[in-house]
């Protein structure tokens, strides 16, 4: 039955978060800091690997690069659109509401944990392709694989940043569930090139998440999310 993949993925996120809370109680502050830096470093290399996988083309004469102009235009236009809508602020409003409803007012890192975890597990080709596969063929296998990865990711996020990471399950279920429900409408429109460019742009955003974690910077990644849609629309032109 369509939808099982997202359900399993959501349960895995919750399970990973609960395990992370158990580990967090026994971790001294210095362990949590180093763990967060390790998570940032791994996110940076996951982002680099995902982007280069789509950008580098191996030919008989050597290695060439594709998609650079599309990436530049997508990120620039996405930044303008995202800042205009101020998606980061919308996420923060929802995060603040969750923080109050869950009695987490004293948790200084709740918002950071929620935003960072949500972006990490929702941005990427596996979420979209897996949800489409689940909706079209009732095949949750790709989302089950993603569920295992997300379980580990959220466990580490929760260990390092706190329980806010667990609530990333809400945007995950809404995002993937919507794609599964609308799969028959979306699938005919998406080409392989669109999915490849989506994966490339999503990997760049994951890189930005890693930079924020590793260097304690503040790239407004949520305001770059429209770049994903723009990459889809620009694909026929490139």
Tell me what you see in this structure:
75% of the residues lie in helices and 3% in strands. Helix 6 crosses helix 10 (192-215). With 238 residues, it is mainly alpha-helical.
Descriptive keywords:
mainly alpha; 238 residues; globular; two-stranded antiparallel ribbon
Short overview:
With 238 residues, the protein is mainly alpha-helical. 75% of the residues lie in helices and 3% in strands. It has helices at residues 4-25, 29-55, 68-85, 87-101, 110-122, 125-137, 141-161, 169-181, 183-186, 192-215, 226-234, and strands spanning 56-59, 62-65.
Major β-sheet strand ordering = 1-2
Q: In terms of structural class, how would the helical and strand content be classed?
A: mainly alpha
The total of beta strands comes to: 2
- What is the end-to-end distance? 37 Å
- C-alpha Rg, in Å? 18 Å
Q: Report the sheet with the most strands, covering strand number, pairing sense and barrel closure.
A: 2 strands, antiparallel
| Portion in helices | over 70%
The arrangement of helices and strands along the chain is HHEEHHHHHHHHH
């Amino acid at each position: 039955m369509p939808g099982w993949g997202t359900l399993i993925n959501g349960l895995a996120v919750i399970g990973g978060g609960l395990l992370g809370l158990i580990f967090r109680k026994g971790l001294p502050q210095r362990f949590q800091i180093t763990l967060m830096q390790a998570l940032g470093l791994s996110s940076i290399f996951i982002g680099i690997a995902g982007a280069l996988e789509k950008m580098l083309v191996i030919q008989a004469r050597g290695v060439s690069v594709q998609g650079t102009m599309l990436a530049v235009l997508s990120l620039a236009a996405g930044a303008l659109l995202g800042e205009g809508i101020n998606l980061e602020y919308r996420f923060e409003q929802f995060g603040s509401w969750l923080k109050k409803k869950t009695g987490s007012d004293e948790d200084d890192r709740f918002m950071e944990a929620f935003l960072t975890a949500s972006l990490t597990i929702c941005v990427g080709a596996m979420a979209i392709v897996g949800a489409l596969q689940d909706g079209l063929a009732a095949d949750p296998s790709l989302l089950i694989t993603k569920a295992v990865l997300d379980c580990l990711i959220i466990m580490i996020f929760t260990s390092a940043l706190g329980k806010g990471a667990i609530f990333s399950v809400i945007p995950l279920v809404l995002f993937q569930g919507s794609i599964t429900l609308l799969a028959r409408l979306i699938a005919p429109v998406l080409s392989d090139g669109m999915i490849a460019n989506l994966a490339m742009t999503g990997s760049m955003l994951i890189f930005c998440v890693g930079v924020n974690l590793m260097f304690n910077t503040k790239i407004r990644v949520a305001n770059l999310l429209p770049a994903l849609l723009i990459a889809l629309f620009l694909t026929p032109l490139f």
